[in-house]
Design goal:
The two termini are 24 Å apart. Strands 1-2-3-4-5-7-6 form a 7-stranded mixed beta sheet. Helix content is 30%, strand content 33%. The chain is an alpha+beta fold. The chain contains 5 helices and 7 strands, in the order βαααβββαβαββ. The chain has one domain: 3-Layer(aba) Sandwich (Aminopeptidase), CATH 3.40.630.30.
């Protein structure tokens, strides 16, 4: 795939902006991903170290350069820290997969929903996707609410769909289409 170019101006609404993460936010990434709830509901390493954060940021750079995925940090306007991450992977012709996490200090404010709405609009618009899929680990009610509020439909349960630290876990599948 060709190199992806981040949107200019950055994707934003009246509360937050999505920006390509940089090494300046390594400490925030490491702190957020050390949170037990992020470890519980994602496939990040547990325990999470700064070395894991550096590897993640290097992967983000490589994915942008190779056109595999567009990963953004999201942060409230004027904030000195990141509030979360949202990533859109390009998995097949016209199909993307999105994932996200919210830092513990930013939960309960609707920021993940806002970030998901922004990246979905960009993915189904400027990025040219026809469909974006999303999977939540079964029982992750917070991420399910985010998906629903962002207009994702579905909810089909697929057993043993994702490997998380050596255990096959069920997921609930969601999707949005361009129509």
């Amino acid at each position: 795939m060709p190199t992806l170019i981040p949107p200019d101006p950055p994707l934003s609404d009246d509360a937050l902006a999505l920006r390509v993460p940089s090494d300046a936010f390594l400490a925030d990434v490491a702190e957020a991903c050390s949170d037990p709830e992020i470890a519980r509901w994602t496939t990040v390493p547990d325990p999470y170290t700064e070395a894991d954060g550096r590897a993640f940021l290097a992967l983000v750079d490589r994915d942008w350069a190779e056109g595999n995925a567009a990963t953004f940090m999201f942060a409230r306007h004027g904030a000195a820290r990141l509030d979360g991450m949202v990533s859109l992977s390009f998995v097949a012709d016209g199909i993307g997969v999105v994932g996200y996490w919210t830092a513990p200090w930013a939960r309960g404010e609707g920021l993940a929903t806002r970030a998901l709405v922004l990246i979905t609009g960009w993915g189904l618009g400027a990025a040219g996707l026809a469909r974006i899929d999303l999977a939540t680990l079964l029982g992750n009610r917070g991420s399910e609410r985010v998906a629903q509020k962002a207009g994702y439909a579905g909810g089909q349960v697929v057993p043993r769909a994702v490997e998380q630290r050596g255990v096959r876990r069920p997921v609930r599948l969601w999707h949005r289409t361009a129509s």
